Amino acid sequence: MLSTQTKSLDVEQIRKDFPILQRKVHNKPLVYFDNAATSQKPKQVIDALNFYYNNYNANVHRSIHQLGEEATAAYEKAREKIAEFINAQYQEIIFTKNSTEGLNLIAYSLTSSLKPGDEIVISQLEHHSNFVPWQQMAKHLGLKLKFIKINEEAELDENSIRETITKNTKIVSVNHISNAIGTINPVEEITKIAHENGALMVVDGSQSAPHMPLDMKKINSDFYVFTGHKMLGPTGVGVVYGKKELLENMRPFLYGGEMINEVKFEDTTFNQLPWKFEAGTPNIAEGIGLGVAVDYLKKVGMKQIFERDREIVDYAMERMKNIDGITIYGPKERGSIISFNVHGVHAHDVSQILDSEGVAIRAGHHCCMPLMSVLGVTATARASFYLYNTEQEIDTFINAIHKVKKVFGV
User: Fold this and answer.
1) Of 30, 367, 377, 398, catalytic
2) 367 catalytic, yes or no?
3) Closest to 175 measured CA to CA, from 186, 165, 162, 161
4) Which of 281, 299, 317 is the last residue of a domain?
5) pLDDT digits (tens, 9 = 90+) for 224-282
6) For the chain, which end, N or C, has fewer CB atoms within 10 Å of the first or last residue's CB respectively?
């Protein structure tokens, strides 16, 4: 049996922090390989949520009583932690409820100043959250939506990048890592090309923020979006990073309380950054919980997590190569995601058999229906890994795939 003490981090010690990993599913030990959809939460994050509700539950920014001041301090401290985590300024961190809301915020606010015929560029790899908002704004405003194509290795085609982004392009928006097939996109290079053509650059970092070190100054995109629930944090909280000078000149996405400076019968002036884009009572406990999740990730080390991803993916790919009758989608160099199909078996059936063995994976189009059409499939089975997964769990996964083949006689 392989050791879970790896050259990058001590997985067995990490697993002790995740209570859910102790449970059984169908009387089998849980093997959780659906991390691209949502990650599990360490007890440190769970305890932080409980501590907030048990000890200083109050609204933020409004009340001057003790509980309100404690809640505000903890919530804004979480914002500071996240800014430091990605090398950004405090005012550049906008809390949202998830990446989807963040991308809608950016799409709505940025396109309000465009004129008919202006061009927006996205890629064939995009999640619906980074596809539909731009598509619908383009339809509504008479804009032109263009797509960077993928090559035979399922990576963004270099020629297509340069041909699609032109002087007519106003906004480029691509993901950092594909949630469907694990492709890691060269966002720094794409940002340079976008800026050379006078376009703004948006990056969907939903799959990258949990898995790799991020430096907003180095990437230099104008906006970067990610979500807490995929990076050990609670559901209901996400982040938009935006360059300060751009955020200051953008229209708010939502209106109401908290995001205002002064309201008169005739007009309203808006709050300063970052609260200008945070209308209403925020997800306070969840924001605090995300700050604790960031503490946890920093303690483990993002470089170490990225290295561990390589170890677990390489081990899984090596084991899967020895199975006849499966197709693996995506490039050789990938994030911690493996999408595959067993020949003659629908992905949903694969997932159901694996579930009977305690193995949780995702099956379907992964909110990437346009990409599935390019790949020529309607669905794939997707295993996605994180810092608490082990080689022994990969072995269980492989045995479960063999059971699929046996059950369906393929």
Assistant:
1) 367
2) yes
3) 186
4) 299
5) 999 999 999 999 999 999 999 999 999 998 999 889 989 999 999 999 999 999 999 99
6) N
